[in-house]
Specification:
There is one protein chain. The chain folds into 2 domains: about 60 residues, no CATH class; about 120 residues, no CATH class. It contains 6 helices and 2 strands. The protein has a two-stranded antiparallel ribbon with strand order 1-2. Helix 4 runs antiparallel to helix 5 and helix 5 packs across helix 6. The longest helix is centred in the N-terminal third of the chain and has 31 residues.
């Protein structure tokens, strides 16, 4: 017992349980300590970049990290504004393109399609037609040999295809009516 320190209670995932030695307790939760180490290390190593990016945003209005994912940066800028613009047009819209003068409801439909496209892009970090890992039903190690893989793949492809079609249509409308986005 001289070499081993005993813990009466070791907490893991919010639940208490009895454990033998400190070494046993630590070996049972090694990944938690590793996660703590890597997240702390990452935080400390990113401080110089965070300061640099902060300075760049203050001096030139954007930072290098926005350029690395320019599509995401543009989406994050446009989405709240286009969403508000669609609401504004519905409530008080003063400007309607000539082709929608006879049917202003259709103009609102176009704006809502544009807003929906940017919503999909903004919420899912949708890049090149692929959903984020959060939406991906296939965890690592999932393969064709696993039961239920093909039905999940079919559902995922259908969902992704529908979203990709919404984004494509919304972005095409955005490009077509870009000059009409004013009030």
């Amino acid at each position: 017992m001289s070499n081993q320190k005993h813990w009466d209670i070791f907490r893991k995932n919010g639940e208490s349980f009895r454990s033998g030695s400190l070494e046993e307790a630590l070996s049972q939760d090694r990944s938690g300590l590793e996660d703590l180490w890597w997240s702390t290390r990452s935080f400390l190593m990113n401080i110089p970049n965070d300061v640099k990016f902060w300075f760049q945003r203050r001096t030139r209005g954007f930072s290098d990290d926005e350029i690395w994912g320019l599509n995401s940066a543009i989406t994050k800028f446009i989405y709240p504004r286009i969403k508000f613009f669609a609401t504004w047009q519905e409530e008080q819209g003063h400007s309607t393109p000539e082709e929608f003068e006879s049917n202003p409801a259709e103009w609102l439909n176009v704006l809502n399609k544009i807003a929906r496209a940017f919503e999909i892009l903004a919420q899912e970090e949708y890049i090149d037609g692929l959903d984020s890992e959060k939406e991906n039903p296939f965890p690592r190690g999932d393969s064709l040999g696993n039961e239920g893989y093909l039905p999940k793949l079919t559902v995922w492809r259908e969902k992704n295809t529908a979203r990709q079609a919404e984004v494509t249509e919304g972005l095409a409308l955005f490009a077509k009516f870009y000059n009409n986005l004013w009030d």
